[in-house]
Amino acid sequence: MSAPLLRVEGLTKSFGALAVTDDVTFSVNEAGLVALIGPNGAGKTTLINQLSGALQPDAGKVSFGGFDISALDLPARAALGLVRSFQIAAVLPEYSALE
Known about the structure:
Elements: E1 6-15, E2 18-28, H1 44-52, E3 59-64, E4 67-68, H2 74-80
Antiparallel strand pairs: 1-2, 1-3, 3-4
């Protein structure tokens, strides 16, 4: 069995007294498909921001392709192929759906 493409170990992020991610640990295989669901305020965006490098965790480790990328910023992670997208309803508002 091969190593996971993405491994997250003990990811933690707090804003003051509010623990948003608390010891989050999971892994995703190369051919894996994962859904991140939860109610508003559950910490989904904070977790994605930590994975992408837009937000540094208080503790924990992120590995991608077998390499520890915890200290890398967003551009460095993107250069390795770990990127995120945003939920934007109108990416090109001047075009119709058919165009």
